[in-house]
Amino acid sequence: MSGENIFTGMVEEHESDQRWAFGTGFTDALAGVDTTLPEGVDGGALAQYCQMLGDDALVQAQRLSQWVTDAPELEEEVALANIALDLIGQARLLLARAGQADGTGRDEDAFAYRRAAAQFRNVRLAAAPRGDFARAIVTLLALSSWRLALMSRLSRSRDPVLAAIAAKAVNELAYHREYAVSWALRLGDGTEYSHERMVEAVARVWPDTGELFATHPVEARMAELGVGVDPGSLSTEVHDVLAQVLGAATLETPTALPEPVLAGRSGDHGPELAPLVHQMQEVARAHPEATW
Amino acid sequence: MTTTAREAPPEAGRDLQADFDTKVAAKQRIEPRDWMPEGYRKTLVRQIAQHAHSEIIGMQPEGDWIASAPSLRRKAILLAKVQDEAGHGLYLYAAAETLGVDRAELTERLIEGRQKYSSIFNYPSLTYADVGVIGWLVDGAAICNQVPLCRTSFGPYARAMVRICKEESFHQRQGYELLMRMMEGTESQRRTVQEAVDRWWWPSLMMFGPPDADSPNTRQSLEWGIKIDTNDALRRKFVDMTVPQADKLGVTLPDPELVWNRDSGQYDFGEPDWEEFKQVVSGNGPRNGERVDRRRAAHEKGAWVREAAAAYANKHRKDQEVAV
Fold it and tell me: What is an annotated GO biological process for this record, any one (chain A) (predicted)?
């Protein structure tokens, strides 16, 4: 910024300048990537797969951003907003890919704002109640550990678009997990009270982790084709990570993961999702003809 | 708060004061370890803290719209913007800490209502157009106030302002760009933009503070190089800059007295309602209670988390000592 002429040029166009605030200087993860569908892949199924992974990110971001102006410390406001922002970025790319794959050309907002909650395909844990900070941390720990394992594999997808999205996501998710780990340790091994909060948080979050490793037929199909990842194949790795972190945080790890049962992936959501989606879509739906 | 380290022995007082005055007159920076008059230090602590509090409380009116931002791009921009504001609060609290106060103490002063923040944030944001207008007018007025502060006499404050102003200029631009888009939209969108402009115009002018004649501290702050321009001068500059933007946008600024003055080469404009200003400053604005209550609630609800972090750090520091 030069001198005091900050306003000079305000009324000129700034089409070339994409950076509106910190973190929105989106580098185009798909620059130069071939968007043609890989051979032998059914576009409809790929679109469904992209919606699953996109919805996970979008719904989790929606939940996490509820901490903004409500976090225990300003540093946590910044960190949680940043994590939500990364996830929104992932969701935008994945939902846009869904619209390409199914041939409808629908954009990211068509998926985010013009589907009913029942049409979302996120895992239930992404929408789970916000709870206290301990619960937020355990939820983030589980989701980021799982998504990091998933995206690491997906970065070798036969679909070059998914591979590029996943490669970008891996760096972000490594940070999300590191952040969750750092707080799991502080809270688990902090005060007696924080330890109790964490014990309760683990008990509440754990039952929802089963679904993370349940394989939907679409996921199975995409995995067979070398395009997607079978989440069932991630359970040992993710469980080991969780056990290691909880152990270091002086917390007991439930001995086994819950049964892998499909829920949100099949549209069977808990009661928390509908209000979350309703709030997200409120303004967009009230002004269907509007431009933003 | 400790001040002893900075207090000079009496016989040295005159030289130290003279050194300080010379530096300020030469527009050199005063740094935290330099001697400074107690009044200068107090004024700075108050001003920087109020500024930091404004960033933090200022997250609320826009933060309310993150959940329902009408497109994913808008959601990302708004989330990033509100996140930046938390970051600005952090830089500013850090600048204040170089003067010997700590952030926890300043937070207490905010949530107990002993320190103020910019009154503008006591107004509600009623529609999504308010997000755009806050970016355009409120961030615009803030930039107008803050750009000169990049040259303020206290080093840490000036350096924090350089960084903050860069980000604020993006914030302002995103607000203006949102409004441009909305004005290209439906009739109802254009109407909500105009209504938001009507709501925020006068409070934005009030952001520069009371008229110079009613601003008793201005002279001293100017002498100390803490302030660079008077309230009225900045207000006028803001009006001159904003009118062409309003024209380009196609909105009307709600001031019948606003007219180009060919002789002065500036716009003439009406007086804000200073009675309303006094009311909002003294706690009777539309959202005063709610803003501080929310900050207090988050702070109190998070106490156990901060205690756990401190306990963990303490435990592991001891571990390290034992290991050594």
Answer: phenylacetate catabolic process
